[in-house]
Amino acid sequence: MTGTSVLNQTHLLLPAKEPIQSPEFHLSLKEQECLSLLKRCKSVRELKQIHVQILKIGLLGDSFCAGNLVATCALSDWGSMDYACSIFRHVKEPQTFLFNTMMRGHVKDGNWGQALILYFDMLKSGVEPDNFTYPVLLKACARLSATEEGMQIHGHTSKLGLQGDLFVQNSLINMYGKCGKIELACAVFDQMDQKSVASWGAIIAAHASLGMWWECLVLFGDMNREGCWRAEESTLVSVLSACTHLRVFDMGRCTHGSLLRNFSGFNVIVETSLIDMYVKCGCLEKGLCLFHNMAKRNQLSFSVIISGLAMHGHGRKALEVFSKMLEEGLLPDDVVYVGVLSACSHAGLVDEGLQCFNRMKFEHGIQPTVQHYGCLVDLLGRAGWVRAAFELIESMPIRPNDVIWRSLLSACRIHGDMELGEIAARNLMQSNSRNPGDYVVLSNMYAKAQKWDDFARVRTEMVSKGLVQTPGFSMVEVQRKVFKFVSHDMSHPQCDGVNEMIHQMEWQLRFDGYVPDTSQVLLDVDEEEKRERLKYHSQKLAIAFALIHTSQGSPVRIVRNLRMCSDCHTYTKFISVIYGREITVRDRNQFHHFKDGTCSCRDYW
DNA sequence: ATAGGGTTAG
């Protein structure tokens, strides 16, 4: 159709089908022509011709025609908001539909503020908004986190009697969620007579964005219970994220199942969240498998797999994946570098870590944050460069936080540096973190050095501050139930069997050359007593329980609150080979995979 | 007669 005006093509002037004549609305023939033309319009150039034609037949003042002209221009893929604005400016008496359309256009282009301004213009010129006005407008408020305007607009919807409109309610939930006003979002949600899938999606997303993971899962349960089981993909991603943060593997796997059943072909976001879930819940293999089968990977996909490999002690592999990421032309950000540096620190790759740190600053222009310094302090400290770690803390341009002092303290404990350990501990005790673990570590250092006076002084100080030593516990999943074992606590209902098993295991292990390592039992008691204490560490109770209640050869997964002692580490290596089990243990920040008598951390942790 | 809610992950 080059060169000829669309309006010359007579077939375009015919309406597509017989117009429906309703008693309320009667379209003149000209209006019908106009509408039919606009429906076929495919470019701005054609639109301009139609615009001229409308001017010629004197319909510009007609709100209906102007509205549709603007709608076509503002909302189609090829449209231009600039042109829509110029048409809009020439309409003498714009009406609701025209304002709504203009607002939609602005929102579509990401000009959230413009949409708000237009709304207030609309009110000023006395045009009454309707139920179509608010969802668009509230989306703009949500994107701007404009709480005040959002609340004001909420008021307007009530005044107009729109509080019962499902779309308006869902938009309100979303708006309050994005503004961080969770109680207001819940208030709207709770008052709804009918909830749609999107209502549940909006309230779940609102909780997810605030990190209220537990509430997310509860709401998801409520949603299913109320017969609303067809959750949207995005909602399942929020649920998956909650599972990851709470490390509830079972629920995570179920969510993966729902995704498989209800959606075909996952997008990058779904796949990345799945990988993160599997990796953080201990299934590195599954995460890697998903990662390798991804059709498309982005910065975040690499980010989760790198920090996952780090968490599981595969430092070299993490660095390999990092190089691959760079090869694929993806730029790392600060989070990726946290993963890379922690990979180096978990694997003891000191030179590589320092190299990466410089690369981050000079090649990729990323300002190191306190987290990056934290990784570096950890890297140096664990590797035995305690003094260098301390000097780094003193020279860094950011104020060190508790995490940094704690990692120095931990390094001092491992390498027996009392002087720096005391400095680190003093900094921790002066801050208001009130972490009993810090007192315990320092006092244990004194115990190890046989300084029993200092030991007593620190313990007394801890008690006088009202702090209680956190008891060590291990949790194990058996037949979809979680069982918790506390060190030396034999009050568990299944403990009879466990006690027997503990003895049986000990005999087996001794027979194969296991020697209890009592060096970490910091009590002023004899060797025999120390060995007795070691026997009932929570991890051993949990392993015994799992060996009794799971079938031969099935993997054992344990989660614990504190770092394991070196004896439990050795012990578990023996168990993995003697009982032919793969045992995964997660402590606060990393995983140990015991298999065939070795651990994935290669004894560096 | 035309039009409306969600892009979720590290």
From TrEMBL:
GO annotation terms (biological process): RNA modification
Keyword Signal attributed: no
Pfam families, per the entry: DYW_deaminase, E_motif, PPR, PPR_2
GO molecular function list: RNA binding; zinc ion binding
PPR repeat segments: 95-129, 165-199, 298-332, 333-368
PROSITE patterns associated with the record: PPR
Signal among keywords: no
Keywords carried by this UniProt record: Repeat
Residue span(s) of domain DYW: 513-605
NCBIfam families: PPR
Family per record: Belongs to the PPR family. PCMP-H subfamily.
Protein name (database record): DYW domain-containing protein
Taxonomic source organism: Morus notabilis
Lineage: Eukaryota, Viridiplantae, Streptophyta, Embryophyta, Tracheophyta
